[in-house]
Amino acid sequence: MELSEHIKTANVEDVTLRRPFHPALRGTLCVTSHHLLFSDGKDEASWQLLILLKNIDAIEKSVEILFGYPRAVGSSGTITIKCKDLLVLQLEIPGMEECLNIASSIEALSSLESVTEMYPFFYRPSHLTLSGPWGLSSMEQYYKQTERLWDRWRISTVNSDYSVCLSYPSAVIVPREVDDDMLIRSARFRQGGRFPVLSYCHHRNGMVIMRSSQPLTGANKKSCKEDELLLRAVIDGSKLGYIIDLRSAQQAQQARMTGGGFESKSCYSDWKRFHRHHERGKVVQESLIKLVEACSDPSHSVDRWLSKLENSKWLSHVHSALCTAGLVVECVERDGHSVLVHGSEGTDNTLLVSSLAQLILDPASRTVTGFLCLLEREWIQAGHPFQQRCAHSAYSHARLKQECPSFLLLLDCVWQVWRQFPLALEFSEALLLRLAQEVYASNYGTFLCNSEQERCAAGVKENTHCLFQSLLRPDIEEQYLNPLYEPTDLVIWPSVHPQSLQLWTGLFLRWTEYAQNMEEAREEVWSIVKEHREQAGPDRTNNMLSTHCDTLTPFENLMDELTIL
Amino acid sequence: MEHIRTPKVENVHMIDRLTPRKSTVGTLYLSSTHTIFVENSEARKETWVLHSLVYNVERLPTNPSGSPLLIRCKNFHVYRLLIPQEKDCLDVLASLTRLSRPECYGELFCFSFNPNLDKELREKAWGFIDLKAEFSRMGIPSNLWHVTAANHEYRLCETYPSELFVPKSAFPAVIVGSAKFRSRGRLPVLSYFHRDTSASICRSSQPLSGFSARSTDDEQMLHAIMKSNPVSELMYVVDTRPKLNAMANRATGKGYENEDHYTNIKLQFVGIENIHVMRSSQQKLVDVGELPAPSMSDFLWGLENSGWLKHIKAVLDAGVFIAKAVAEDGVSVLVHCSDGWDRTAQACSLASVLLDPYYRTIKGLMVLIEKDWVSFGHKFSHRYAHLDGDPKEVSPVMDQFLECVWQLMQQFPCAFEFNERFLIQLHTHIYSCQYGNFIGNCQKERRDLRLQERTHSLWPHLWENRAEYTNPLYRTDHSQTQGVLKPLTTAYCFKFWKGMYGHADKSVASHQSPADCLNAVREESQQLEEELIAHQERLAQLKEKKTSGGRKKTNKLSERVRRPIPIESKLSSPLDYFTATRSEKHSPSFTLPLELAAPPKNGDPDDLSTCSDFESGVADLSSHSSSAGDDTKDPDSDEAVKSNT
């Protein structure tokens, strides 16, 4: 079925559009294969509204018969469109039939599941070419750039045809002394074949963060010699490593009944295991739904609001993620031992914790490029199933399948760190907001599919543009810079006391007046900093407390000129 | 001095609750005014705690390592000490308990505090805030309002200032009659005049109306107030109490205005709870902050259960209602509660902050507090327990006002000239009794205590240090700065004030501060500017030497318009800016050793790693709150398997 066949009515005139911050507009509504367009006809060249149909999470229609309405049919309908970026807008459409047609077209087109029919495969802006590099860095490049890995670690291409682990990238970093056969055996012992691989090597002491899925010990307490050897090779003679299991001890026990399990003390004698309970899947998705629901009703009393905020548990998830990331950092940085992180599948909370720990530990991941590379390595290449997790957002009434806002949770945690260390990250809240939007609906192919293997099969790299590449173009990147950035090599320990964590108003109250005043404040910060930079000369951007010699150079030149006179 | 049982205790541990690793050992000294802890470390860091700031002292059960002592301060700082000998601990406890509860005004710190100012300067300092000038700044038209001498020598109302603004059309007999019909003689008088609409905010106490009483004088007084706004035929009476409370008061011969007796008034209740409800609400809030290892749910539940933010919203709602009536409807408002010195002060001053950009400046907020709170007889000494007295009189009325201003600052980051630090400093000094401004309960009492001769004024001290209290985002020509503020009062706009209540432990230092950073940027910009000018001058001189008709190339550079920066804050370099404020810390007689008064810390890179809640040391790896219990069970053992399946 062609996409266009879903469109029952392509154009409707005399539609009224209502949305936050804007007066109601009257104009023409238009549905195309991938977009919903609205124009008031005054300015032919520009659309007043252009939203990706993929961005539409839920659509509600109410049809009412109006007496004395000028149209012959004497009826009209209102469609409420709720987007995945939390924007809500209303369209008043004259004519009941048109209204229903528009609604059903949107419903059909916004829930397409075939990857190659999605907009990134059709997005062809004139300033981008498909021949450019896709992605920022491959695992091989990462290895080449990270000299501290060369001694004890190697790149393995055992998964080059994705046969060992369907969700892993084709190349992974593993201990040098472990050969590919051992990896294959270890993979058989881990859920989904996700054997332990290197996620991060700490620049200060060479300790590493590994990640994997749960071992398949099962009820019979199976063990796997190769998996044990692999982990022994990770700590390389040091007598201690930490396993952070992202489930409670009881859950880990129960997992054995379904074939999963945990690393037992008898088999992994050098490893000490901690259990940290993290909610996953549906529970987290429901938290998001409850939170957004609470935020969208401004009539709540303070008590009711706080009770709803508490009840959503969203901040509790943020809290646990930061706590566990902090624990990992403490193991690596303060205690000086390597860590293995895993939950059950190793594709959600595992990635959340390992990437947060890196942000806290590693100054390199706090720049714009570094952060995007981190996301690429730890989320996209590492096989977070974006397509399944982000199929629906907070408004959808569809029955939940595999949805879970793990990535949104990561962005929220990063925002909490950014708020506590406003000077330590090179990027600003705007980048996090942009990513929160792109992950659900995008012109770019970056967040398509569930793994490298699927992306390969669908030809994503050949046929779509890369979001990260485009974010790093100098003119674009500027929008996402933190004006107050001052690089620091230190570990930025976030406070995880509940009173230090806040609701991410920039995201959850994005479409309220509250966010508008904040925007003004941000502009003011920029203008102060820009003025300062102008004053201080173009070369000195961030280093505020340094000497003023650069500023003085122009004067020395002037002096020279004068002496020539 | 006779209350000090032991002046010095050695080997005392100062315990850091969140990060026990960072606890320090030192010597504890008790002076007549301060508790001083000096670290044994090389830095010999000193911590000074003013006795009058101590809220209570609690001794916990003695354990093998010593006797723990908890000092809780009125600014919500908590100090945990571990004293080796139980006897010493008991002595310190007894001494501090007595010292922190002065029995008469003469014992207060402000009477012994001497910052080495000569007499003349001190007198000048007391004149820093001039309320007469403030009323003339408001632009009150003299044909409609005037100062009445009715309260000369506090004859009419003991708790009002001696000079009162009343409608010119109100005859002396009406004024006296109205005062007689109002609780404690607190008659309706002008608090704020809004030039743009000619509407005014007046304040009073509740009328003595009971179930049926009326006073034609009071009715005429209100009519006169309404008439003083020539364009309006209506007036609001805002009773800031919940309606039920107001009705209950009628049984005791008080109550509220009967709309049938007064011409064209509209009565509105806004429902701010009484001081007792607020006191217990704040206590619950503070308890939330002291929870040992709260989960997110514990915290949010505690926050909800305290009801604190609900009360903050009620106070702000009252201010918003009044400001809207005055600015948008152009209608004058009379505000009262029971006595007209707590909720009335909150509502009037908040409305003024919303209405008039002047009150959002550093000087303006000082003026506002002096006017609506100090002069109109807010009972500072009772509410903030300056003396050992009736605990039922104590209530965080001013805390709530300051917090409402803070909540507004969160919504309008560019609208206020001052920063959070300023509000917290004000809060501390309202309790500290270091300066004479907030001693006593009304103007008459302060006059009788001869405070101006015997104590110092806080305002000039804050003004001198205003560079530290300036919000870098404030600009007089910014859209948020101008006109009337229209805040949202949706529930989600109200946040927990971490800077105020998050200080249960002294170590929870602020993380990186963007404001400090921006201030530093501005300081440096200004300093570069100065250098620029200096160089230009030098260039000009050189040019003159070389040729008389040299090119005027440099002028272009000086034409760059600079944003005004307080002139007094001329600092030689940003680094000096830090050291300058830091050195002040070493003269504790002048500034309280407060964490928040501490200088910006971004010059010191180590600070980053010192502010973690995580720093519980490796030994504590298992103690993180999320699921601490799980670690002790090792699911490997077969027993565990059995018990769990």
Automatic annotation (TrEMBL), chain A:
Record-linked InterPro entries: Myotubularin, Myotubularin-like_Pase_dom, PH-GRAM_MTMR6-9, PH-like_dom_sf, Prot-tyrosine_phosphatase-like
Gene Ontology biological process: negative regulation of autophagy; phosphatidylinositol dephosphorylation
PROSITE patterns per record: PPASE_MYOTUBULARIN
Domain Myotubularin phosphatase: 133-508
Pfam family of the protein (one): PH-GRAM_MTMR6-like
Organism domain of life: Eukaryota
Annotated GO CC locations: cytoplasm
Any GO MF annotation of the entry: protein phosphatase binding
Family: Belongs to the protein-tyrosine phosphatase family. Non-receptor class myotubularin subfamily.
Protein name (record): Myotubularin-related protein 9-like isoform X1
Organismal lineage: Eukaryota, Metazoa, Chordata, Craniata, Vertebrata
From TrEMBL, chain B:
GO molecular function: phosphatidylinositol-3,5-bisphosphate phosphatase activity; phosphatidylinositol-3-phosphate phosphatase activity
Region span, Disordered: 541-566, 588-645
InterPro entries listed in its UniProt record: Myotubularin, Myotubularin-like_Pase_dom, PH-GRAM_MTMR6-9, PH-like_dom_sf, Prot-tyrosine_phosphatase-like, Tyr_Pase_AS, Tyr_Pase_cat
Protein name: Myotubularin-related protein 7-like isoform X1
Basic and acidic residues: bias regions: 630-645
Binding residues for substrate: N274, I275, C337, S338, D339, G340, W341, D342, R343
Keywords: Hydrolase, Lipid metabolism
Gene name for this UniProt entry: LOC113107394
Annotated organism of origin: Carassius auratus (Goldfish)
Coiled coil: none
Domain called Myotubularin phosphatase: residue spans: 125-501
Similarity remark: Belongs to the protein-tyrosine phosphatase family. Non-receptor class myotubularin subfamily.
Pfam families, per database record: Myotub-related, PH-GRAM_MTMR6-like
CC per GO annotation: cytoplasm
BP terms from Gene Ontology: phosphatidylinositol dephosphorylation
Active-site residues annotated for this sequence: C337
